[in-house]
Write a structure and sequence with these properties.
Length: 109
């Protein structure tokens, strides 16, 4: 009896139409025209702000950016191998397979 009553009340609450419908106002509490004007202003500000940001990104990550980190010093405590890797020649790390960097960085080991 109680589960049937709970089910009926749940269905009635879910299917009930709200008594009041609310319109979401923007923070300005102005007219729709004011809201559109403010939205257009912020779209223009965002668009103009995007141009220098894209320029900085292109400057930092473009093909002309200097990505060299200099020569890697082979300290004796680096690249210690207690046992061989189960792939390749056993001395090559997994993500350096087929790379020319392996020959330069591990030449003196």
């Amino acid at each position: 009896m109680i589960p049937n009553m709970l089910f009926r009340r749940t269905v009635a609450a879910v299917t009930r139409t709200p008594k009041y419908t609310f319109r979401r106002n923007m923070s300005s509490q102005g007219t729709v025209a004011d809201d559109r004007k403010t939205a257009d202003r912020w779209i223009k500000i965002s668009g103009l702000g995007l141009i220098p940001v894209l320029g900085l990104v292109a400057m930092n990550f473009g093909p002309w950016a200097n990505h060299s980190h200099g020569h890697v010093v082979a300290f004796p405590y680096m690249h210690i191998r207690n046992k061989k890797f189960p792939w390749g020649d056993g001395d090559t790390p997994l993500f350096i397979l087929g790379s020319d960097k392996h020959a330069d960085n591990h030449a003196d080991h």
